[in-house]
Design a protein that fits this description.
The protein has 430 residues and is mostly helical. Helices cover 79% and strands 0% of the residues. Helix 2 packs antiparallel against helix 9, helix 4 crosses helix 7 and helix 15 packs antiparallel against helix 18.
Length: 430
């Protein structure tokens, strides 16, 4: 894979086009299953309890997060194509299991496998875009385009599957067959990704340097496992020696998705029970907020490439904090629409700028492993956030999760202010 530092050429590269389509199709499948299909299917059709549904969804997030770092590590060694195709076969298996399994255990395992199957998606995308952007890390445009694919797929999946359910008189088998076709299609798309990745950095140099050629020992049945163990140990050692970031980066990664975790379980409940918004009006509300985010992502990404990340992250975090705080206090529907649009604008500022900022902290060696580690940390907020959100909702008040998310966003603004001035450790990591 050849590097090219021009943002426009990155978007036209075969790797980026294949990765964009893969990301979009996977998010269509995930969005359809997790938002529109499984909650209703498991509750109304199979009669499973809300607790079982919660456990199944938690297993999906767990599988996704646990395997992000290993999949990033694997992508650098066996290539994007082999990593993604292998993982996406797991996604196909998960959809097949959802079609045929009716038990709580079977569906929970299907959700876990679905999480494992989608885990390499963002590590591969971020690693590839970071490599393509070259030493100047001008990848804000590409990051914005990737977020457009993710948000577009997440939105189109539920909307499309709900429309199909209405057209087929709630025939779930037809919906599942469409998703099965999407799973096969995304595997075919992933097959055009690069087969091998030429890794820049320390571990590539370490494999090619040396003053003497050693005769390899005679292989045994344990040789592959021994080599794997040595490779992992070497990777961890190099990550510790090359990753020289300010420790505040780690809580910032967690906080960024923790906010979404706080909001996701209660936003629908709050609009229905407290704001008394009808389902159709709620759909318009989602379109107003999500639509403006998708539309603004690419222009903001281009501006990030031109002016840098600091201004957009400062403004984005502060605007998100103020908007979420206002959302918790104001009940006038026209004003709520305006607030939701402001939240959408703030996220359009944050998403490409944040990913671009994080990309500047990642050394050339072990990009895949470090991106996987960072995305695992970031994704852990999505696991913890819903639990905290439920406690705030049940034991404090219904607006409490929104006020909590506003406070976290304000904290992120402060943390980023410090990081923008001192992104690295004052002394090299040991």
């Amino acid at each position: 894979m050849h590097t090219d530092t021009k943002p426009a050429k990155i978007l036209r590269s075969p790797f980026f086009i294949a990765m964009w389509l893969t990301l979009f199709l996977v998010e269509v499948i995930k969005g359809a299953l997790l938002v529109a299909i499984l909650p209703v299917y498991m509750d109304n059709i199979l009669g499973l309890s809300a607790g079982v549904i919660g456990v199944a969804f938690a297993l999906q997030y767990l599988g996704d997060n646990l395997f992000r770092a290993p999949s990033g590590w694997a992508a650098e060694r066996i290539g994007f194509r082999a990593t993604m195709v292998t993982a996406l076969i797991c996604t196909l298996i998960a959809v097949i299991m959802i079609i045929f399994f009716k038990s709580a255990f079977g569906l929970a395992m299907a959700c876990l496998i679905l999480g494992v199957g989608t885990s390499p998606l963002w590590p591969c995308a971020m690693t590839g875009v970071t490599a393509l952007s070259g030493p100047q890390n001008k990848n804000g445009t590409a990051m914005g385009a990737l977020e457009m694919a993710a948000l577009g797929g997440t939105g189109l999946g539920p909307v499309g599957m709900n429309w199909l359910l209405e057209r087929t008189d709630h025939d779930y088998r037809t919906v599942f067959l469409v998703l099965l076709g999407c799973a096969v299609l995304v595997i075919l798309v992933a097959m055009i990704l690069p087969g091998r990745v030429v890794v820049e950095g320390q571990h590539a140099a370490a494999e090619t340097t040396g003053t003497a050629v050693k005769v390899p020992p005679k292989p045994t049945l344990l040789t592959p496992l021994i080599r794997l163990k040595k490779s992992v140990q070497g990777t961890l050692q190099r990550v510790r020696s090359t990753l020289n970031v300010n420790p505040l980066v780690y809580p910032a990664l967690f906080m960024q998705s923790f906010v979404i975790g706080l909001l996701s379980p209660v936003i629908t409940l709050y609009t229905r029970t407290d704001l008394h918004i009808s389902p159709n009006l709620y759909s318009l509300l989602l379109i107003a907020g999500g639509g403006i985010t998708v539309i603004a992502l690419l222009p903001v990404g281009k501006l990030v490439d031109r002016f840098g990340t600091s201004l957009f992250l400062h403004m984005g975090f502060l605007l998100a904090s103020a908007s979420l705080f206002a959302f918790a206090l104001i009940t006038s529907i026209p004003v709520v629409f305006g607030i939701v649009m402001l939240v959408g604008v703030s996220y359009a500022m944050i998403l490409p700028a944040w990913n671009t900022f994080v990309a500047t902290l990642i050394p050339k060696g072990e990009r895949g492993a470090i991106w996987g580690f960072f995305l695992t940390l970031q994704g852990s907020g999505m696991v913890v956030g819903p639990i905290v959100s439920g406690l705030l909702w049940d034991h404090i008040s219904h607006p409490a999760p929104f006020i909590g998310s506003a406070i976290v966003m304000a904290g992120l603004a402060i943390v980023h202010f410090v990081l923008s001035r001192r992104p690295y450790r004052t002394a090299p990591a040991k």
